[in-house]
Amino acid sequence: MSVGVTRVRLWWDDAFWVIPLTGLVAARALRWIVYYVDEAFADSMADFDLLSPSSAETLFAAVGGGMITFTGFVFSVVLLVIQFGSSTYSPRTVSYFLRSRVTQSVLAVFIGTIAYAFLALLSVGSVGRDSYVPFFGVLVCLFFLLASLVAFLVLIQNVAGRIRVDALVSDLGRVARRAITRQLAGGQGENVTILDARPEIEGGTAVVRHRGNAGQIVAIDTDRAGRLAANTGVEVVFGVRVGDGIAPGTPVVSVGAESVDQRFDRCILVRRERSLKFDPLYALRILTDVGLRALSPGSNDPTTAVRALDEVEGVLRAAAPQRLGTVRIRAGAGSVIVQSATWDDIVDLAIWEVLEAGLEAPQVTRRLSALLDDLIDDLPAERHPPLLRYRHRLRTAVTESVHPNDAGPWLVGDLQGIGGEM
Hints:
The protein is an alpha+beta fold. It has a domain at 3-163. The chain contains 14 helices and 9 strands. 58% of the residues lie in helices and 10% in strands. The model has no long low-confidence stretch (mean pLDDT 84).
């Protein structure tokens, strides 16, 4: 995927204001439609004294003013919930909460109700008659008010659902599995091969340095890099990968030549924060952070760490069948080499920190035992080395450092931590 397309999709993911703005635009357009409908039926509705102008003005003003106060109160509560989630689980979960389309849609309904009520208020007594009341305008305003109440209930349900730890880690696990299978898997196509290690650059080395803003690498446009490499006919090696922090002057590309096209720097998309959708390991990083935060002395919540390990196991199972590692893409007479996470990198990120932090929590050691034993039994032999290393570390640490006299119960495989012995 090109950097341009990725940039637009990232903008859409991060643009919290777009959907709420559509509520304002829709209210303005609907008000014009209802205005012309009321004007068309003004003579036929003149004989029906359903609502006085003062009552209509009071209704519109009450709905508009009340919704402003109500919207401020509701979203103050939402922001407090987001703050609670970021402090309880991980600061990086803020983007997870803000990306909720339900929250944005509810805000659009609230803004639409406010805008429509005040626009309809201006039409009371118009059409050249002081006693004119927009009958259909009143009905639509009442409909907007009812829709806002329903939207409020939907918002409460959504926020309460997203703040629950099970829902949070489940969503993060789903995002991590999807990102790994879509963004991290290499070796697709005849011109792509997986390298065992990053090759050494021979000859004179030319380097392209980053000239943009500091931030996190979100994407690398391998298609554009391939076209540039085909023009130069050399092997281009990216020294950075998705997820890396980068600053002006950081070496980006190196080649075994006297010079290199400086446009390779434009093949890298840099943002202020990593992306859940396009960064294949970011969701797994957050899952690990949730487990670590749960095991901190201030939280002391090993059950949450066990729940995070449930999703971690699913991510590892999704990553195991993929062709992982540094990718070489042939492009005409040249080629592009892009670093990517290996199986060992993914296992380290998923297990290492939680294992070291959870050695004194029997729920965690038992769940880790089940995770490692199951993966070793199910995955092919080439995926075993890091899993065997961590199983040895777990057994050694629990036996020698934590419970030298009675480590057996702490190492029994248990999918529930305690209560689901295998």
